[in-house]
Amino acid sequence: MLRSKAVIANSPIADLRRYMLGLVGGEAAAKKMPPIELQDVDGMPDGEVAHAHKLSFKASCRRFGVTSLAQWIERLKTFNAVQALGRLSCPALALVGTGEGDEAHQQFETLLAHVWPCDAARV
Predict the structure, then answer these.
(1) What is the number of domains present in the chain?
(2) End-to-end distance of the chain based on CA atoms, in angstroms?
(3) Which of 6, 95, 108, 120 could form a disulfide linkage to 112, CB 3.0–4.6 angstroms apart?
(4) Average pLDDT over every residue of 77-93
C-alpha cells in the first residue's frame, strides 16, 4: 500500500455531487432544470448555453460514462469521500478561496470537522 507523506487539497471537495449542485443553486434548482441529453447539446444555441458549458458537459458525460444531465448527477453520488476523511493521518494543507462559493467553503469546513476537529488553523 502506498502511504502519502502529505496532501494538499485545493479546494477540498469531499462530496463531488453536492459541490456540483452548489454551482447551479442546489438540489432544488437542479430538479427544475430541463432534461438535457448528450445528443442534443450541440444543437443548443450558444445564446442559451455558452459554448464552453456545452464542451464541459460533453466532457463530463463521456468521462463518467453517461448520456444525460440526470444520469450525470446520479452518477456523482458515488464520488463521496466524507466518511473517509477521518482516516487521513498525514500532514495536510487545505485551501479554499474567498470567491469559490458557499459550497466550496462548506466542504472546507466539513474537511476540518472530520480531519482536525480540535486543532485546525484558519488563515
Answers:
(1) 1
(2) 33
(3) 120
(4) 87
Residue range of the domain that includes 35: 7-115
Residue 63 has pLDDT above 90, yes or no: yes
Check: CB of residue 57 under 8 Å from CB of residue 36: yes
As given in the structure block, the three cell numbers for residue 10 are 485545493
Closest among 103, 78, 82 to 21, alpha carbons compared:
103
Tell me whether residue 122 is in a domain. Answer: no
What would the grid cell of residue 115 be?
480531519
Cβ distance 57 to 69 under 8 Å? Answer: yes
DSSP state of 51: H
The Cα–Cα gap between 10 and 37 comes to 31
The pLDDT of 81-103, averaged and rounded, is: 88
Does position 113 have pLDDT exceeding 70, yes or no? yes
Omega of the bond leading into 11 within 30 degrees of 0 (cis): yes
Q: Could you give the CA distance from residue 37 to residue 39 in angstroms, rounded to a whole number? A: 5
What digits encode the pLDDT tens for the residues 26-57? 888 888 888 889 999 999 998 888 999 899 99
